[in-house]
Amino acid sequence: MTAAGAGDAIWGRIHRLASQLRAAGADIALSELLDAAGAVRHVDLADREQLRTALRATLVKHAHELARFDAAFEVCFPPRPVRGAGEPAASPARAVAAGPGPGAGPALGERVHTAVEAGTEQELRVLAEEAVARHAGFEQGARTERYHVYRVLRAVELAHLLHDALRRARERGDDLSRAEVAARIEALRRLITEEVRARLAAEPPGADPAVPVSPFDVELARATATQLAEVRAAVRPLARRLAARLRRRRQSIRSGVVDMKRTARRSVATGGVPLDVAFRRPHAHKPELFTLCDVSGSVADFAGFTLTLISALADELARTRSFAFVDAVDEITAVVEASPGVVEPWQILQGGRVIGADGHSDYGTVLHDFRDRYGRGLTDRSTLVITGDARNNYRPPGGDVLADIARRVRAVYWLNPEPRVQWDATDSVVRAYAPHCRGVFEVRTLRQLGDAVERIL
User: Fold this and answer.
1) How far is the C-alpha of 363 from the C-alpha of 246, rounded, in Å?
2) Tens digits of residue pLDDT in 61-72
3) Which in 12, 310, 341, 441 has the greatest CB count within 10 A?
4) DSSP 3-state helix, strand, coil percentages of the chain (rounded to 5)?
5) Distance CA 345, CA 326 (A)
6) Among candidate residues 329, 332, 313, 305, the one with its CA nearest the CA of residue 321
7) 101 phi and psi, to 5 degrees?
8) Which residues lie below 8 Å from residue 123, measured CB to CB, with a gap of 6+?
9) DSSP β-bridge partners for residue 322
10) Residue-by-residue DSSP string for 239-283
11) Distance between CA atoms of 88 and 312, rounded to whole angstroms?
């Protein structure tokens, strides 16, 4: 474990402690933080009482603040389990003395790989703290535990660590125990969850309770289990209302162009006065819809809601075909049609071959395979709807393939469940696909999903 990694985690906890004390009314200036920085360099940070004394001496100015400090300290620096015999302890004191140093030493991902292959509980814990500090997204405001945990798990690619660790071991010729690696990965997941939970518990007391949110306005990526259940219950009623609106609009279509011949014939009955004006009504074609959904990570729930909503509109569509992918694509039309309620991610993973070489999202490969395997079914009457965050793990995006697909169909639309401010950041490649789409929609809630589908149809 590098000194910089441990230092980042400890400094993050100290800053969190100071922020909580400030929120509770304590007057903590930069000078007090500098004093704390100097004090913790001279104590054994593995000893909680020494650390408590150092921080109390530098951050507390009045006796009546002591109880508040002790309560906040317990949240920000919870007791750690006793180490097993022979397990080496980390040296956080040396880490703090070195100071935080982003970019120093191996990258976080490489250290995670090393730790799950042969790391100790203490090393995993410090890694969990650092990963949460960097990737949980608390700077955007505290959300649900599930949301923050997911952000960290996605950043460290926990779902692929077992496969990657065993592959690396084979390449080195090492005999690595699958069970031991799986146990360390599960320990890392648990430690990440504990760290997120501790940070959420450290929110300032007396904060306003969350305002109840309609199921239609819940952000799907941040929803709790209870909120997701409410969203599931709201999908089918939304589909029925949307189908009724589409039906009424289709029945009342008018081009606004007067049919002069028919109007003249009708005017004979009124002495040549055109009282009954005839209009040209185009034939109301029902669209043919193809849906291609990314079912990796947290976007899997969003894909399920999209597939369910479109499936429930089948009577208003000429034909629907559903496809899902991670790094391989497969048709899941039968799975969607057989689902009695909301299509669940596990049904898609079980009913379709959507994981290929390594289970990392690969939009470029998927678009290429989709065109080659199913392109014959695409015509100028077809509309293709793609759902996903367009995060391609730094692989070739295949924008030219999507351009070829767009030339074959009536239109391509993209539904992205991530906030627009996160598009084209890190491995997001929305800009490679947007020029070939008639519309790219930010769809973070069920209401936005319904509005987008209505506009598309």
Assistant:
1) 32
2) 877 778 778 878
3) 310
4) 60, 10, 35
5) 12
6) 332
7) -145, 75
8) 1, 90, 115
9) 291
10) HHHHHHHHHHHHHT---S-B-HHHHHHHHGGGTT---S--B----
11) 58
